[in-house]
């Protein structure tokens, strides 16, 4: 019976120590993984904040546009009456509520957004022009209060009234 001698594969250590990772190598690898994972989490959080802000900014713009269009369809007398009216805009007049899903969306909108309107008579124009400003405010997922607003002017005689200023 013959015995075969054992010879290690090329490149392997032949000393009595076992081949493997040291504690330092494992610690460095763990630190790199922790850094990579924490960086990914931070990027995801900022992405979610940006997405939330973009969605809510779009919804705020839709609220503003809907209210401006509603006011644009009113008569001059009704627009003048808005000066004394409650500045809070009822979102139920903007969003539909025919189905259960629409009612749920409306409830979320009412809980998220606050919309106000400010109507001012511009006396510099012979009391024939109103300035209307609509502002929508909400709190983002980051806890920061955001708002968007726009303003327009409404003429007593409609869109086709022009005012000329003579300069000398």
Please summarize what this structure is.
The protein is built from 3 helices and 3 strands, in the order αααβββ.
Describe the structure.
With 168 residues, the protein is of the alpha+beta class. It has one domain. Helices cover 41% and strands 18% of the residues. The chain has a 3-stranded antiparallel sheet. The model has no long low-confidence stretch (mean pLDDT 84).
Overall pLDDT: 84
Radius of gyration based on Cα positions: 33 Å
The number of distinct β-strands equals 3
General form: elongated
What gap, in angstroms, lies between the N and C termini?
124 Å
Which H/E pattern describes the elements?
HHHEEE
Question: How large a portion of the residues is in β-strands, by DSSP E?
Answer: 15-25%
Overall helicity: 40-55%
How many structural units, i.e. domains?
1
> How many helical elements?
3
Largest sheet: 3 strands, antiparallel
Class per helix and strand makeup: alpha+beta
| Adjacency order of strands in the biggest sheet | 1-2-3
The low-confidence parts are none
